[in-house]
Amino acid sequence: MKNKLFIILVLIAFSGFGCALRKDVDILNNRIGEMRLRVFTAESEITQLKAQADNIRMRADEISRAGDEKEKSLRGQSAGQRTEIEALKENISVLNGRLEETNHLLKQKIKTQEESEKKIDGRLARIEEESATYRTYKDRIAVLEQYLSIEAKEKVGTPDSDAAKKDDQKKITKEIAEDELYASASQAYNKGNYSTAREKFQELMAKYPESDKKDNCQFWIGESFYQEKWYEKAILEYQKVIEKYPKGNKIQAALLKQGLSFYNIGDKQNATLVLNELIQKHPKSNEAKVAAKKLKGFK
């Protein structure tokens, strides 16, 4: 009865594992290990029972001369033990089947969650790329309009027209070079060449310290480390965005991804603090909505 009760408790303990999420993987793996250890212990007990059964058969042979009644009694005991052993084997087989089924379901859920996270990251990247392309397009238009305006004024001529023309040309050349470098870095990132992308973003920040793209560059440096699952480095790079560009257009995304990075390294406490800060400071942002859903999963 103790062995049967033990097996029933084990089956009850495993019945809730089918809906485990990725965050429970480590706990589930530990419990699975414990269950396998218990199964091994149960099998050892079965081996002992078999040995006892063999001893009983030997004793039955030794005392067979003492009378048919005693021999029948011993045989009955041996048969009962064999029946119990077979029942244990059957229950262990069922338990192993449940373990395999739980492992399969867990792997499927982990795969589904990872695919969902990749889709979200991909959407964010596409949105950023489209936004950057649009801004670049508008900037180019503005530069061309300014250049054409300069050419029209040049026909009239002023004492300082030559100097002004040179300054404007330098400015235009600088802006075009800056846009091309940013586009090249973004292209490297989108192709998964994260190291190259980081180098180009850092080059832009060094060459053009007054650029309005610096906060974007810093954010995508953090994103490149996040994609490589180097979450510790990503946290530090996101922090630079938060500290240096608190009014920039990447502050909400930086807070969200920093919170997720803390969560991915197992620091649930700091993840909660950062995501709550995002919700409090930018409650109407899309990132705040994502953060709220993530926090519900922490509970």
Architecture overview:
The protein has 299 residues and is mostly helical. The chain folds into two domains: 2-114; 157-298, Serine Threonine Protein Phosphatase 5, Tetratricopeptide repeat (Alpha Horseshoe), CATH 1.25.40. Helices cover 85% and strands 0% of the residues. The protein has helices spanning 2-14, 25-62, 68-156, 161-190, 194-207, 214-227, 231-244, 251-264, 268-281, 286-298. The longest helix has 89 residues, at 68-156.
What's the arrangement of secondary structure elements?
Layout: H1 2-14, H2 25-62, H3 68-156, H4 161-190, H5 194-207, H6 214-227, H7 231-244, H8 251-264, H9 268-281, H10 286-298
Question: Summed up, what is this model?
Answer:
The chain is an all-alpha fold and 299 residues long.
